[in-house]
Specification:
Layout lengths: L1 E4 L2 E4 L6 H26 L2 H21 L19 H19 L2 E4 L12 E9 L8 E6 L1 E4 L4 E3 L1 E8 L18
Helix pairs in contact: 2-3
């Protein structure tokens, strides 16, 4: 059977099994889709940024899950003691792996140490903790969420921190009134 198509003649062969034809078409579609995905991956500049942001978000969740009893970034032998549950040790491994992946994308984790001075260019204060010790005013209590910077030093995300805030002791003037016990 022949059909006219413009100036060319197209001959349709009807002796190919339908299953084989469907398989061949599926293979061609699959190859084309893979090719388009590769091209999109190469040309889609925000993809790396989106992947990094997603990894940071997952890293935050893991860090929060670990926080109640451990420091996820302390790699000392004491940290790996058997007191830690299997689940926490697993999360520590996941956290370290996530940090390695982020480092591969050129991201450096920034988590200010407790009692370090807050740096408003890299830290965002989200909690203040009152203190009566003036020497602690403006010092980091804890990091709530790690920040990240690129290897070239450009800040990507500020660290969220809790900071001490000095509150002077206010003395109440003594009352001239006598209590019931003091009255004769």
């Amino acid at each position: 059977m022949c059909k006219e198509r413009g100036t060319q003649t197209l001959q349709v062969v009807t002796e190919i099994p339908v299953d084989a034809l469907a398989e061949a078409v599926a293979e061609l579609v699959s190859r084309k889709c893979e090719s388009l995905q590769r091209q999109r991956w190469k040309s889609d500049a925000p993809t790396k940024s989106e992947v990094v942001k997603a990894l940071m978000a997952v890293s935050d969740v893991v860090e929060q899950a670990i926080r109640p009893g451990t420091d996820p970034h302390d790699e000392s032998p004491e940290q790996e003691c058997s007191v830690l549950t299997h689940e926490v040790r697993t999360l520590l491994v996941v956290q370290r792996r996530m940090q390695a992946i982020l480092a591969g994308f050129g991201m450096e984790r920034m988590a200010p140490a407790p009692m370090s001075t807050v740096d408003l260019s890299a830290h965002e204060i989200v909690v203040t903790v009152p203190t009566r010790d003036a020497g602690k005013d403006g010092l980091v209590v804890e990091t709530i969420r790690s920040g990240y910077a690129r290897n070239d030093g450009q800040l990507v995300r500020t660290a969220l921190v809790a900071v001490y805030k000095y509150e002077a002791v206010q003395f109440e003037p003594q009352s001239d009134k006598k209590t019931e016990e003091e009255t004769p």
